[in-house]
Write a structure and sequence with these properties.
HIT family, subunit A, binds adenosine monophosphate, about 140 residues, five-stranded antiparallel β-sheet, globular
């Protein structure tokens, strides 16, 4: 049994516009933005707009919409960063590695011979995050 959804989690605040984010794109069901502590260049997050704590309680229709955006953003991020691979990660509950309790998928372009940085590393500068969001957005517009 999963715990209840907390509407005051940080991604819910981002969705409500109460705190800023570096947005890549959104549609009726999903929202994509840059991870503030990236594990590599172009690391982004895709979340449902509908409240869901994680994969254990998400509404399947909402999950399907989020996965469509994961694929779209993943393809665009690979093009934008000239990546050779893509890692998609998603964590559930504290024991599963989850830190923020609004469902999110990590979308991380990967490069030959380059490991991901550890989680919870240094915060990226707003300038770099804005530039990286713009690069992915431009690749999306071309797709
Ligand atoms: P996890 O719940 O383990 O998947 O980790 C949460 C992720 O959210 C980490 O990669 C953090 O860097 C990221 N994160 C936390 N706060 C923010 C924020 N305000 N904006 C963007 N990303 C965030």
């Amino acid at each position: 049994m999963t715990a209840a959804y907390d509407p005051n989690n940080i991604f819910a605040k981002i969705l409500r516009g109460e705190i800023p984010s570096h947005k890549i794109c959104e549609d009726d069901e999903s929202f994509a933005f840059m991870d503030i502590m990236p594990r590599g260049p172009g690391h982004s997050l895709v979340i449902p707009k509908k409240p869901a704590r994680n994969i254990l309680d998400v509404d399947p229709t909402s999950l399907a919409a989020v996965m469509r955006t994961v694929q779209k953003v993943g393809r665009a991020a690979m093009k934008a960063f000239d990546a050779q691979g893509l890692t998609v990660q998603q964590f559930n509950e504290v024991e599963g590695g989850q830190v923020v309790f609004h469902l999110h998928f990590h979308v991380m372009p990967r490069f030959a011979g380059i490991a991901l940085k550890p989680p919870a590393g240094p915060m990226e500068s707003p300038e770099v995050l804005a530039e990286n969001a713009a690069r992915i957005k431009a690749a999306l517009e071309k797709s």
